[in-house]
Amino acid sequence: MMVRYAAYFVAALLPLLLFRWFAPVSIGEIDFWLLWLGAMILVALPMVYAEIALAYRSSAAPVAGMQTLTREADASPLWRSFGWLAALVAIVIAALVISGASMHMLQALSSMQMAPDVMPFALSMGLVVIAVLLSLLGVTPLPIGLGLMLLGLIFGAVQGLPQINFAFTGVSLGEWARAVALALVSVGAGTGLYWFTGVRQGEDGTRSLRASKQVLPIWGLQVVAGGVALGMSSISMPPIAQLLYGAGVVFVAGYLLHYAAQQLAHRFGILLSMVAVLIIALLLVAVVPDAWLAGILVVVSSIAALLLSVFAGWQMKISHLRKSLNFSNEGLYNLWRIAIRLIVPLALVLALIGWGMTWIG
Q: Can you tell me where the transmembrane regions are (predicted)?
């Protein structure tokens, strides 16, 4: 049963996991909210359609599915790199959120006079090991993680919600870059998670549903969860709330590492894949600063999303995706095809340029 609703758990969790890393300095920027909503419609929505359509067409997870789809489309094996990049993105997300959670958990324990005498990176490495062990449980950590994170936010909300003063500010390419980044993390674009959960739903007997019918409920949940997460991204949580939230993050990271290991297992076998995932995640939390991890996530997920959009829009046969999506009318399919072929790649390129200008500045 949990497999059937895995996509909805993922949709609710991704904004809660990542919005604190990419929210603007001032949450009250009305123009930023509008840019984020525009990115959710123009970038995120077509990407979710593409992922689920490719899942239906390939009947396999991203790494194996891209091999099938590239052969079917007679496309270059280069496009198969999406599957490997998607696995890397999941590991980077897990490392980033675990690193942040360990810092906040140490702060919470310190305020409770219970802080252990360990460095933050040491605690992060210990939490990575726990997350890898939790990855053995498959989908099970998702609802547990969501419940713990929501409990933390509720405790924080009881202490008082953040005061937001809304105002219009100047729109810039850097602001568009942040909006697109938030849209990408809202939907997990570039991770292949909805592709993976779509295939797993098929194993649970739900593939008789049209792919297009599954997208809007998932996307709608992402918009709601994203709006809540954005509005609460600056909330101040008491120590117990930080501990609950951090524990939930570790559970969710366990699922992300499970997903990454399952992708690598297609080539290397499950045991070697789990060892590789553990080593990569440990190195990321021990060596790479959080700000760099966030930058790596932006670049790698944007490249993966760009690969997926170009492949779905320009390499796949029109008849194959039309059949997989099974829209109620041809006009909707044509709108999606224009978006995935032109609007999404252009928006992603502009966002990468905006991030580059921000980092240089």
A: 32-56, 77-98, 118-137, 144-164, 176-196, 216-237, 243-261, 268-286, 292-314, 335-360
